[in-house]
Design a protein that fits this description.
203 residues; alpha/beta; Rossmann fold; 2 domains; 5-stranded parallel beta sheet; two-stranded antiparallel ribbon; 7 strands
């Protein structure tokens, strides 16, 4: 019986997008903004901080590589809180029903910098509903490394075969499935509701 639901956060429950800061900075020029994200402050670079690399050190290192972009590089983490958008209300409603049910326990497993995660904890009260949250930046491990899923299981005494894992990235979902979880790749709350019902999870 599936009795444990493990949620990713960003892209599933929480909206985060650096465009909220940089589109205005580039005066609406998406081509220039995307070039900056593809070449200077890249997703791969940001993911290093999700793995526990210091924001301050990461910023210094990036400026050393691209000194002509110092001001914009400093903005990336200097104005990070403004990149944190809204909660996905439909998914939060599903989470609320699971939280209120005596039949299910909910956890979160997120790729997130340990330095910025406290901002999310303050902003989104529903994060207090989770029985436990594993934050990649605190553990120096990131999805889809199997080690971080195993850490979740061991820390909270969970059996993967009774867990459903929900994430918006296919590689993260596959890593969970390989360890025995039931996996759901998130696309929207209506589809998620149906997928949970298909697993006999009553919400």
């Amino acid at each position: 019986m599936m009795n444990t639901i493990v949620f990713d956060l960003g892209g599933v429950l929480i909206d985060w997008n650096p465009e909220y800061v940089f589109l205005k900075e580039f005066r609406g020029d998406r081509e220039k903004m995307n070039w900056f994200f593809e070449n200077i402050c890249t997703s791969a670079w940001n993911e290093q901080q999700d793995a526990g690399h210091s924001l301050e050190q990461a910023t210094r290192e990036r400026i050393a590589l691209f000194p002509e972009h110092e001001r914009l590089i400093r903005m990336y983490y200097g104005e990070w809180e403004q990149m944190l958008g809204y909660e996905h209300t439909g998914t939060v409603e599903i989470l609320k029903k699971l939280h209120q049910s005596p039949d299910y326990t909910i956890y979160a497993l997120t790729n997130w910098s340990g330095e910025t995660f406290p901002v999310a904890l303050q902003k989104f009260s529903f994060l207090s509903w989770f029985k436990g949250i594993v934050v990649s930046g605190d553990e120096k491990l990131v999805k889809p490394d199997p080690a971080i899923y195993k850490l979740l299981l061991e820390r909270y005494g969970l059996d993967a075969t009774t867990c459903v894992f929900i994430d918006d990235r296919a590689d993260n979902v596959q890593a969970a499935v390989d360890l025995g979880f039931k996996g759901i790749q998130f696309s929207n709350d209506r589809k998620l509701h149906k997928q949970l019902l298909d697993l006999n999870i009553k919400i």
